[in-house]
Amino acid sequence: METKKTQATSEQMTDTDLSEQIKKVTKDSHVRAENTELMLSFQRGQVTLQQYKLLLCSLYEIYQALEEELDRNSNHPNVAPIYFPAELARLEAIEKDLEYFYGRDWREKIVVPAATKRYSHRLRQIGKENPEFLVAHAYTRYLGDLSGGQVLSRITQKSIGLKGSEGLSFFAFPGVTSPNLFKQLYRSRMNSVELMEEQRTGVLEEAVRAFELNIQVFNDLQKMLDVTDNKSQNRSLTHSTPAQTLQI
Ligand code: HEM
User: Which atom of ligand 1 is nearest to the CA of 151?
Assistant: First the structure.
């Protein structure tokens, strides 16, 4: 009887592949990220204009740091395989969205909580000290954006009542025809990165940290929104001056 041969394909994954390990170690963190109040608002189709604008401000700060560090380290052997600025870069798209919502002087109106500062600080630190960890952060943000992009774009558009696609550039990846195929390519590139055992452990720990930093940002943003909501409620009760409200 003929024995069945397994066909080795370039897409076949093994337990030791970085893409599989990283997905496994961040599984619980992904569930926790999905269940933050901010992400639940998206999933329920209840995201408000204030929530989305405030999120865009933080994403601006985060992607500015991430993409500057990726650009600076683009020739590093552990970064080059996962460097896809034409397909993935988000910064310009976020700038467009911010201009749409805040006007031409949007740069003066950016407000971010402490957790966002901690996240961008960590990105700049590893860009300088451990560029091989950048793959963990690029994975966490870009593969997440590619996974939820289309659905979240439609939900956001409907929730905040946008007519066209203006204000939603962040979700659009014009350089990626098929997000699923691109994710496969990205995973195979991640798997081609050569890492010593210690570095691999470091990358996996960094991925968990990347999710944690995102969760802290979402929680801080929600707290900021709660404060503004309370303040505006109090204002209507006590007639306090507009200068007392937190500017978003
Ligand atoms: C993948 C849902 C938030 C990071 C995915 C996938 C779904 C999903 C359905 C595809 C799973 C698969 O292909 O097996 C959601 C929902 C979210 C959310 C509903 C909340 C609204 C986030 C956040 C992050 C994130 C906040 C990180 C900051 C990722 C990553 C992947 C992913 C990195 C790729 C996993 C892999 O293939 O290795 N998400 N997600 N997600 N998500 Fe999320």
Answer: 19
Find, among 127, 125, 119, the residue nearest to 76 by Cα: 127
- In this prediction the pTM is 0.90
Q: Does position 5 have pLDDT exceeding 80, yes or no?
A: no
**Are residues 132 and 202 in contact, defined by beta-carbon separation less than 8 angstroms?**
yes
Tell me if 147 CB under 6 Å of ligand 1.
Answer: yes
Which residue's CA is minimally distant from atom 30 of ligand 1?
144
Task: Tell the residue nearest (CA) to atom 43 of ligand 1.
Answer: 144
What digits encode the pLDDT tens for the residues 197-235? 999 999 999 999 999 999 999 999 999 998 877 766 665
Residue nearest atom 37 of ligand 1, based on CA coordinates: 23
CATH number for the domain spanning 122: value is: 1.20.910.10
143 lines ligand 1 (CB under 6 A): yes
Would residue 41 count as lying in a domain? yes
Give how many domains the chain has, as a whole number.
1
- pLDDT band with cut points at 50, 70 and 90 for residue 1: very low
What residues make up the domain containing 126?
18-222
Q: What angle do CA 193, 198, 204 make, to 5 degrees?
A: 65
Ligand 1 pocket, residue 140 CB under 6 Å = yes
| Nearest alpha carbon, ligand 1 atom 20 | 34
Assigned token pair, 124:
């700049």
